[in-house]
Each structure stands twice: as C-alpha cells, then as structure tokens.
Write a structure and sequence with these properties.
The complex is a heterodimer of chains A (about 475) and B (about 375). In chain A, about 50% of the residues lie in helices and about 15% in strands. Chain A is built from 15 helices and 13 strands. Chain A has helices at about 5-45, 50-55, 75-85, 105-110, 155-165, 185-195, 230-250, 265-270, 285-295, 320-340, 350-365, 370-385, 390-420, 425-440, 445-460; strands at about 65-70, 90-100, 115, 130-135, 145-150, 170-175, 180, 200-210, 215, 220, 260-265, 300-315, 475. In chain A, the strands form two sheets. Chain A has a ten-stranded mixed beta sheet, sandwiched between helices. With about 375 residues, chain B is an all-alpha fold. Chain B is built from 21 helices and no strands. The longest helix of chain B is centred in the first third of the chain and has 54 residues, at about 15-70. The radius of gyration of chain B is 33 Å and the shape is flat. Classes of the chains: A alpha/beta (about 475), B mainly alpha (about 375). The interface between A and B is large, with 44 and 48 residues.
Amino acid sequence: MGDPIIQNIIELFHYLFFIFSGSAIASYLVLAFISVIETVEYKRKNSYVNYKEIMSSDSAPSISIIAPAYTESLNIVENVRSLLSNHYVNYDVIIINDGSKDDSLEKLIEVYNLVQVDYLINEQIPTQPLRNGIYKSTNPAFEKLIIVDKENGGKADALNMGLNISNSEYVACIDVDCLLLEDSLQIMIKPFLETTDRKVIAAGGVIRIANSCVVKGGKLHDVNFPKKLIEQGQILEYIRAFLLGRMAWSRLNGLLVISGAFGLFDKKIAIKVGGYDRNTVGEDMELVVRMRAYMEEQNKIYKVAYIPDPLCWTEAPDNYKIFISQRNRWTRGTIETLRKHRKIGFNPKYRVLGLVSYPYWFFFERMAPVIEFVGILYFGILIAFNQVRWDYAFALIILAYLFTVFFSLIALITEELTYHQYKKKGTGIRLLQIAFLEPFVNHPFILYAARRGNFDYYFNKKKKWGEMTRKGMTKA
Amino acid sequence: MNTYRFLIDYFNDSPTIIQATWIVIGLFSILILGLILYLKYLRGHLRKKESITVAYEQEYEAALITYLYAGNDEEEISSEQQAIIDLLKNGAKEPFKRKILIAVLLKLKNEISGEVAESIQNLYYQTELVDYALSRLSHKKWYVIAKGIRELKQFQIKEAYNPVIIHLNHPRPEVRKEMQLYMVNLFYFEGLTFLDLLETPLSEWDQIQLLEILQKLENQNISNITSWLQSSNDSVIIFALKLAKIYNQLEAKNEIIQLLHHINKKVRLEAIDVLSYLNVLEAKEILKTDLQKRSQEEQIAVFKMIENLYENDDESFIMKYIHDDLFEIKIIALKILKRINREKFCSLKSESSDDSFLRIVNFIENN
C-alpha cells in the first residue's frame, strides 16, 4: 500500500467516513434538541384539554378504523372487541379479512352475529375482488362493525378496500392486533380540527411495545418491562425514534413516515393520490411521501401532524428470526419509497420535503447501514493487512459507543419527564442496563437485516412481507 | 503513578484529532454519569411526588369534609372552619400544594351540589385561591394565562369577565380557546358576544366544544345570529350556520341564502347543508341554476339537498345526472328518480348495457 495514489484514495475514504459520522451525530443532536422543544410545547398545549367534550359530540367528524387481517384467527375476536371499545362517538370499524386461510371469518360471524349485507362500493381504487362479501352485525351493540371478506391482495390492497368502503371523512389505518387506548381517536383527530392556517393531511401516533404488558377485556391494564433483551432493546429504540426523532420532524413539518400500525388520514386526499401502493412493502411511508408530494405540487399549505402520547400498543418480535425479517422489510420499504420518489430529493420545488426530509432519509436512514457495513468490511481488511492505527480506532470506537449511550439516556429522561410509562421499582436499572447493552444486543442484527434487505431488494425481487408470528398479548 | 504518567505522555504525543476525541470522550463520560444520576434521582423524585400528592390529597379531602360539616347556625364561619381556612390558605402559598388543593376542590365541587357546592365556592374565595388565578391572567407566559382562565371557568368566577375578555384576540389559540369556553360556560348564549369582536379563526375543535356546552343548556334563548352570518370572519359565519341548524333558525333564511354565493367554499357548503336541513325550497331552485359552476363538493352537497327536498318537477333535472361521473351524484340522482318515477327508473335496466351502471341500479332497486 505504498503507492501514493492508493494512499490518497484511502485517506479520502477516511475523511468521508469521518464526515459522515460527524454529520450523523450532529443531526441526531439537532433533532434531539428540536424534539425537546416540541415535546415541551406539546405538553403545555395539551395538558389541560378536555377530550370528553369532543368524543360525545354529534358534530365531531366521522372516522373509520380500517384494520386488515390475514390469518389472525388466534386473536381476531379479542382484537375486534378492543377496537370497538373506543370512546369516540362518530366512528366505525372496518375489518378487512384479506383472504385468510384460517377460520377468522367464521369466528367473527359466530361471535358478532354477522349477516351478509348488500353494499355498494365506490371502487375509486382498484383492489382484489370480494370473496364472500360484506357482513354487518344483527346485534345493535356491534352496529359500528363492518367485516369485508375479500381475495388476498396484501396489506396495501386490504387498506385500499377499506378506503373504498369507508363513508367517513377520516380513516385510521391500523394493524388489527394493535391495542388502541380508548381516547386515542379524539386525541388523534385534534390536530385536524384545531389547525386553521393549513390543511392537516395525516397524523401519526407513537407506537409502544406491549410485550409483557397485561391486557384485560381488550384494554391495557398493566405496563410491564419485558425480560428478554431483544424486547427491551426495541422498547428503547422506539422511545428514541418516536420521542427524539419524529417529534423533531413534526416540528420541522418534515415527517416522512407514519407507522402502519396506527395513522389517521384525510380520506379524500388519500384517495385522490391513489391510496396505498400495492407494489411496495413500505406502503405506510410511501403513502405519506406521495400525499406530501401531491400537496407540494398543488402548492397547498399542509401539515403532517404527530402525536407523542402513547395511544397504540403493539406486539414486537421476541426472537431474532422475526426481528430480522421485520427490519429487512423496513429496509426494502425505505429503498423502494426513496427510489420511487427520487424526483423529490434535493428538489427546491418540494421545499422542506425535498431539501431536508428526503436528503436526511437518504443519507442517514437509507445509506447509514450500507456505509456502516462497508466501514466494518474495510476495518476487517485493514486488520488483515495490519494497517490499523489502533490508537485512532480505539478512541473512535469508544466515542461512537458513548454517543449511543448518551443519546439513549437523553431519550429515557425525556420519557420519564413526559409519559413515565415504566413506573415500577427496579425498572430504572434495567432501562439503564439496556442503554449500555443495546448497541451489542440489537444493533448488529439491525445492521445484518439492513444488509439482507439491500441484497433482497436488488437480487431477490420476489421477496415480499415475510412472516410475523403473533403470540398474543398477556391477558389478565 | 507510572500508568498515569504513561497516559499523560500518550495524550501529549497523540495527534490533535486524537486529543480532541479523548477530550470529547471525557466530556461524554461526565455527561453520561450525570445523566445516570439524574435519571435515578428523577425516577425517585417522580415516585416520591406521586406518594406525597396522594398524602396531600387525602389530607385536604379530610379537611374539606370537616369544613363542610363544621358550620353552625350562630356564626357565619365557625372557629373550626376558620382553622381549616387558615391551614388551606397557608398550604396554597406553595404552588405544588396549591395545585393539589385546587384539584381536590374541583373534584368535590363536581361531586356535590346545592348549598355544599356553594360552600366550596366560598372556600375558593376565603383561601384566596381566586387571587392566584386572577394574577395569572396578566402573566407573560401564555400557558399560565390559559390555565388561569380555565381555573376561573371551573370555579365559575363571573367577576373575572373583564380581565378574561381582553384575551379575546390573544396570539395563542390555546388562550383564546380558554377565553371562549369561559364566556360560554358562565354566560351561556350571552357569552357568545365575543364573536362580534373575534378577529382570529375559530377552529373546528373550538366550535365543537362551544356547541357541546350550549347544547347541554336548557331553556336558553338563542341570541340573534344575523350579525354573525354577516361577519367578516369566515369561521364565525360557519359557527353561526351550525347554530342556525341546531336551533332551527328559519328566520335567518334570507341571510343564509345570501351565503350560497360567499367567496369561501366552506361557508357555501355549510350554507347548503343548513338550508337543506331547514327545508328551504327556494335555495334548491337557486342552486339548480348554477350547479355546473360549483365545485364537486358543492355539487354533491346540492344533490344531498335535492334528495331531501325533491319534487316531481325535478325529474328532468335529475335525468341529466344519472350517468354523472361523480359516483355520489349518480347514486343520489338514481335514488331520487326511483322515488319520483319508478317506471322510468326500472326502464334504465333495459336501456343500458354498462355492467357497473346496472349494478348500481340493481342495488338501488333492492335497497
């Protein structure tokens, strides 16, 4: 390696890695700072809001909860019961049985006294056809429930069917196994109704991990901190992402993702842009980007709102196989969306979306695992050729590790100061423990999944969703 | 000692970038240590605060119940009651205890009624809590003002009208909202006079909350809404239209008809909806003449109105829309045709070969 040209190239690489790491750290710090400001503002604004007044009002706008279900027989009855127990008045629940191969439909028919009904669908978005048809309950207690049984077409296709069926102004698209708090809809609808200077096109909520939590009668009864490190790591990761990341993007009006597990959308705009894209595994992010691009192209002033309250609880993977499969899908979804909407990137016509959000996602979400992986490979090569400057390597690795721990601790303190969900004695030490361990217990698998995701995106196009086996939440 | 010397020498001999990295590492280490200690303190503090809050709540609840039952006929305030007032007054000096005391008072106030509720109200004055709330109204921080107004509303302090109304056009919507809720909660329809002077938008959220409060009132005379229907503030017009609908304000019909040509689409849509609800046939005729010039949303709203107010004479007009591109209009047009002229409606099945159209016709025929 004595050639000066090669030496210069290697040096250039070093600087590029260094600049990338420095800007990633700087961007995280800036985002964390903005998040804290936004969180304080949000808490001040909403600490004394009376949500009861809005939920009982006939004037409150209509909302449809759309929940696709594929082979969810194990928990479907309980999940539907949970969705029906929301306190909001003007809402209905549309369950799309997306060609399930199990007895989900039969169970629902039996428990909820369903009968087939004649229903005129406004097919504004093309979907797979109905299979057995549409069902409603003969029991007035379940009058809000609509079950649609259709041919399998995937999650996006099922959500599109829900958009076609819904007669409401707003649609809450959720995962059927998610547990929504009873006042979640009135909290989520607030930004749509209170914003007067711009159009709110969508609102995303925080997703919390329900593993080890106790559920009673379809409601969250007791919040527990799980024992498995993989689950604990995800809790920390979610707190970091939702409280320190998305909160800042909300402030900057640059939010690109609303989790598919729970998001509220202006139905008219969601339909106008063509609904969910059936050809991507990242349909949740893709829809938000498309809606935003549409508003920018129409020169309309708009906002994608974000609600930090813990309103939606879901089961997270509790083993590495499913965890990797999930993260693989997330990686492919991000690549697909950014690639599909590449005209937005660095395009001043799209303002914050084109000049801030897209570049950030491109460099620090899409490229970060690639650069990290290349960095590790390169480090391995340097070790093999005995070219490592160990004093440099040692110092920089410690710095990177300490920054990760520092950032996690900031996230934990924000959580304690705002929502303080993990109250039980003894949990504090476990939260601290996972802040130190998470870079070793979860991050390597995330990196591996991202590498697989990249590989599958380019060389294994047939790969779609992958499996997610549900165990069901702990019942009291 | 040697290790220390070695480390110092290593640091001094290192390149600047490595020296900087070690300095940042040192800085992060101190910060992390500080954060760990803070997190530990914070969790302990939150737990302690929770238990202290519960203890104070219990103490204040017991004191308040004693206060309520310690009165006698001879004195306005018994010595026992005075002692409790002094205790609470003293406690109210600390913001933390004051917050708990207010919460306990409100809880009790909401649970009881009649003379006992009045006693709680008096206690709010006697403990001088009202002064703290009033002093908040002139605070420079918006959220302090908003909380002050909210508290005055909850304790129904009508005397605060003047210092509250000055926040009518406060730059923060949260303060304006609390001001509006105060006015309507305490002065009912009369409180709505703030609409005359409102320059900022009244959000849909605010409107729903105000309507909810008004609808809970019994035997109240609604104010004259005409001036609000002519307001320069579009959100006030929309709110007035909602009032017109809820309280069947047919006497404001002419003003509402004028709004069919308002520059703001939202106002026009709301006006169509209200006129449909009030069964104003004249409006239908006006809208039929300029339907094509209106937006899609308005066209759908007009058809919903016609569905409500159709007459046999509307058949020729309706026939023009049974193949409309807009699904909603097509459906309503066919539904109306079925009601006006069933024979003609049935003949559509033989006249058309379009499957999707026939599906709709069949659905409407059967439902």
